[in-house]
Design a protein that fits this description.
Helix content is 9%, strand content 51%. It is mainly beta.
Length: 340
C-alpha cells in the first residue's frame, strides 16, 4: 500500500511539472527592428557621392543622417511599417525611395519575447542639375507654321522617384522655350499642353521623348501643334445631288447658285488676304465678270447670273474665302456641265 501511495505522489508531481512548464511557454511578440544601409551614386559617373542628406519620419517626427563617400549611410531601429527616405544634395536632383519593415511576429518562445533584425539595402542614384533643353513651338495655320506665344511646355523626367519630376515653362513671343538646371538623365519627355490662341482656335497637345546630353544644352527639333478645329470647308452647294456629287446637265436657265460652308465667311478679311474683291468667279462659255454677281451672308455664298448659260458647256465657280481668322481660308472650285 505504501508503494502505491508513493507512485501516486510521483505521478502527481509529474503532472504538476508538465503544467508548470506549459505555463511558462506562451505566445510572445517578436519585435522586428529595421536597419537601412547603402551608398548614394552619381547617375552620370557612377561614383559614390559624399555629403548627401538623408531624411525620414518616425512617429510623425523627422529624423536625418548624412551619407558619406567612405561609409555610406545607416539608419537603425526602425519599427514595423513603411518609410519614405529622401536624399538631397546641393547641385543634384532630390530622390525618394520607400522601404518597408515587416510586421511584428507572434510565436511560441520563452517568456519575455525576443527581437528580430531586418536589414534593407538602398543604393539611390542622383543626377547633377546641369542639363538644359531649348526648342520652339509652332501652330499649323492653313499649311503655314506660325510661332506661338504662351504655350505651356513641360519637361517630364522618366524616373518617377525624382523630385520634382515635372518642370514647366511657357513659350515667349517668338515661340521659344528654355529649360535650365534639369537632372542629367539620358532622355526627357517634352509635352506641350493643348493650346487655344487669341482667336479661340484650339490645337492638340504634343508628347514625345528626346535624348539630352549631361552638362550641355540640347536643342530639340521644332514642334508644330495640329489644328484641333476643322478648317474652312465646303459642306453643300445647289449643284450637288449628294455630298460631293455634282448633278449632270444643269439647266441653262439656272440663274442662282449657292455655296454653303462650315463656318461664317468674313468678306473684309477675304478681300484683304486676296488683295481684291474678286472672291467668287464664274468662268465658262460666254461668261464675263459683268454677267454675274455674288453676296455673302454668314456661311452662305450666293452667285447670281444675269444671262442664261450656254448649252452643253463646262463652267467653274472658283472661290477664295477666309473666316475672321486670316489663316483659316479655302481656295477651291466647283465645276459643272450644262444640258443640251
Amino acid at each position: 500500500m505504501k508503494t502505491k501511495r508513493i507512485h501516486k505522489v510521483l505521478a502527481g508531481l509529474l503532472i504538476l511539472g508538465i503544467i508548470g512548464f506549459t505555463a511558462c511557454k506562451k505566445e510572445e511578440v517578436v519585435k522586428v527592428f529595421g536597419f537601412v544601409q547603402g551608398f548614394v551614386y552619381d547617375g552620370t559617373t557612377n561614383t559614390i557621392l559624399d555629403d548627401v542628406k538623408v531624411t525620414w519620419e518616425v512617429a510623425g517626427k523627422q529624423d536625418s543622417t548624412t551619407a558619406t563617400a567612405a561609409d555610406g549611410f545607416k539608419i537603425n531601429d526602425l519599427y514595423s511599417g513603411t518609410y519614405i527616405l529622401k536624399f538631397s544634395k546641393t547641385g543634384y536632383s532630390t530622390v525618394i525611395d520607400d522601404i518597408s519593415v515587416p510586421m511584428d511576429d507572434f510565436t511560441a518562445t520563452a517568456k519575455g519575447g525576443a527581437n528580430k533584425e531586418y536589414m534593407v539595402s538602398v543604393n539611390p542614384v542622383m543626377y547633377p542639375l546641369n542639363a538644359g533643353v531649348v526648342g520652339r513651338v509652332y501652330k499649323s495655320e492653313n499649311s503655314r507654321s506660325i510661332p506661338i506665344e504662351g504655350a505651356i511646355v513641360r519637361a517630364e523626367m522618366p524616373n518617377s522617384n525624382l523630385i520634382p519630376r515635372i518642370y514647366e515653362t511657357t513659350t515667349d513671343a517668338d515661340g521659344y522655350y528654355n529649360f535650365e538646371n534639369l537632372p542629367a538623365v539620358s532622355y526627357v519627355y517634352i509635352r506641350v499642353l493643348e493650346y487655344i490662341d487669341s482667336n479661340g482656335e484650339k490645337y492638340y497637345d504634343y508628347y514625345n521623348d528626346f535624348n539630352i546630353v549631361p552638362g550641355a544644352v540640347t536643342t530639340i527639333s521644332a514642334i508644330t501643334l495640329s489644328h484641333a478645329t476643322d478648317p474652312l470647308m465646303l459642306t453643300n452647294t445647289s449643284l450637288w445631288i449628294a455630298p460631293g456629287v455634282v448633278m449632270n446637265d444643269v439647266p441653262v436657265t439656272t440663274r442662282t447658285f449657292t455655296l454653303t460652308f462650315n463656318k461664317d465667311i468674313d468678306q473684309a478679311v477675304s478681300e484683304e488676304r486676296r488683295g481684291d474683291t474678286d472672291l467668287v468667279r464664274l468662268t465658262g462659255a460666254g461668261i464675263t465678270t459683268a454677267d454675274y454677281s455674288f453676296t455673302i451672308s454668314g456661311n452662305v455664298v450666293t452667285l447670281t447670273t444675269t444671262i442664261d448659260l450656254t448649252a452643253a458647256s463646262n463652267y467653274t465657280i472658283n472661290y477664295n474665302l477666309y473666316t475672321a481668322q486670316p489663316y483659316d481660308g479655302l481656295n477651291s472650285s466647283v465645276s459643272f456641265t450644262t444640258a443640251n
